[in-house]
Design goal:
Elements: H1 2-23, H2 30-42, E1 45-49, E2 55-59, H3 64-71, H4 73-77, E3 79-84, E4 87-89, E5 101-105, H5 122-154, H6 159-162, H7 165-175, H8 180-188, H9 194-202
Antiparallel strand pairs: 1-2, 3-4, 3-5
Helix pairs in contact: 1-5, 3-5, 5-8, 5-9, 7-9
Length: 213
């Protein structure tokens, strides 16, 4: 039985490293990531139990959020509450060696950016950042689409007539974007204005003729 628990803990460790590496694509500061991971690996460990008796290894002062993400990223993202040793605790509660933790979850992912202020594991931190990075990207793309659509309508033009395959090729070339999502992302993050993008193909910037020559 003890060997089974040790094997389970090793599997959790391997899974943790895999998810950390995958999520590191969204970590903004590589040196910060490396420092946090190094501190975690060198920290004192505690062993936390699920209600079913499974044991998870976590760094000292880990929280229920760290515990939830260690179980699965889907559990972490849907965490709404925690019960430790049959007592309701706040999500920033510092777990103690031997605690039995039950995580209450909602139906939809709803992580909170405030969690980044108290989580202790690089796995949880990276997954939280990953969630919001993806969310921000989607918002930028949607905003960029709306900005371009409004500018096209403001000029009393038709979306499909302006963004033909030929025009898009020219726009992608001039803006160094790969596709429409990339273009919308650039617009939504204010790298370009919608007016500038349309001027590339509509030539609204009239040539200036020096009449004095």
């Amino acid at each position: 039985k003890g060997s089974v628990k040790i094997q389970s803990m090793m599997e959790h460790k391997l899974e943790m490293y895999r998810t950390i590496i995958e999520a590191n694509n969204y970590v903004e500061n590589d040196s910060e990531f490396a420092t946090n991971l190094n501190n975690e690996l060198l920290s004192e460990l505690i062993y936390i139990y699920t209600p079913k008796g499974d044991v998870l290894e976590l760094p000292k002062e880990a929280t229920p959020i760290d515990f939830a993400y260690r179980i699965h990223s889907g559990v972490g993202e849907r965490t709404i509450g925690a019960i430790v040793n049959d007592q309701i605790v706040p999500l920033d509660y510092k777990l103690q060696d031997g605690d039995i933790v039950k995580i209450n979850t909602g139906k939809e992912p709803n992580p909170n950016k405030d969690w980044l202020n108290f989580v202790k594991t690089s796995q949880a931190r990276s997954k939280i950042k990953s969630f919001f990075s993806k969310q921000d990207r989607t918002n930028y793309i949607n905003n960029g689409h709306d900005m371009l659509d409004k500018e096209i309508r403001r000029r009393k033009l038709a979306f499909n007539e302006v963004l033909t395959d030929e025009n898009l090729k020219e726009i992608f070339k001039e803006t160094h974007t790969q596709d429409l999502d990339d273009l919308y992302l650039s617009l939504g993050s204010l790298r370009f204005t919608a007016s500038y993008v349309l001027d590339i193909v509509l030539e609204d910037k009239k040539d200036v003729v020096d009449i004095y020559l």
